[in-house]
Amino acid sequence: MTFSGELLAFMSLALVAVIGGVLLLNLSKVVHMVVALVFTFLSIAGLYVMLSAEFIAAVQVLIYSGAITIIMLFGIMLTRHDDTSEPEEGKWRKLFLFLGVLGFAFAVYIGIYNLEIKSAQNVVPSTLHENNTEQIGIALFSEFVIPFELTSVLLLVALIGSIILAKKDDEEEANKE
């Protein structure tokens, strides 16, 4: 087995993503969890770059690593939280969780192994990685224009709903005083 630069880059990015996910689940401070989540998002963006999906990688960095993380931090800072600790998890729950993760990893491995066997028999077209941003734009604004517009309306409704809920909380707060 020879180690190429691509394999080393993949293993490094995958390791950072997995470690970030594990830290996200095991850290106790929420801000530290968000930082671990940022590392996971950035490593996933690196994996997208390795797949020649530069547009998706840029969207991953801008939307997830940037916007979603900032929204989570603002949500943490602007909300009241009561510091109630949860009871310790049992050993059986951790064992079942570990077995579930192993089962999922095995299923992914089998899926990838079967994909490698099938792809060795079929030739993949060489135009797959050419102009992928242009192909996404053409598909998005021609074939998927209605779902795209419905998504924008859904996001607008969610924004208006969050403003109404925040205003209602302010009114309740004013009525209590």
TrEMBL record:
NDH-1 shuttles electrons from NADH, via FMN and iron-sulfur (Fe-S) centers, to quinones in the respiratory chain. Couples the redox reaction to proton translocation (for every two electrons transferred, four hydrogen ions are translocated across the cytoplasmic membrane), and thus conserves the redox energy in a proton gradient. It catalyses: a quinone + NADH + 5 H(+)(in) = a quinol + NAD(+) + 4 H(+)(out). This is NADH-quinone oxidoreductase subunit J. It is found in: Cell membrane. GO terms for molecular function: NADH dehydrogenase (quinone) (non-electrogenic) activity. Its EC number is 7.1.1.-. It comes from the Bacteria. It is a multi-pass membrane protein. It is an enzyme of class 7 (translocase). NCBIfam families: PRK06638.2-3 (NF005168). It holds the Pfam family Oxidored_q3. The chain crosses the membrane at residues 6-25, 30-49, 55-74, 95-115, 135-166. Belongs to the complex I subunit 6 family. Gene3D superfamilies: NADH-ubiquinone/plastoquinone oxidoreductase chain 6, subunit NuoJ. It comes from Robertmurraya mangrovi. InterPro entries: NADH_UbQ/plastoQ_OxRdtase_su6, Nuo/plastoQ_OxRdtase_6_NuoJ. Keywords: Cell membrane, Membrane, NAD, Oxidoreductase, Quinone, Transmembrane, Transmembrane helix. The keyword Hydrolase does not apply.
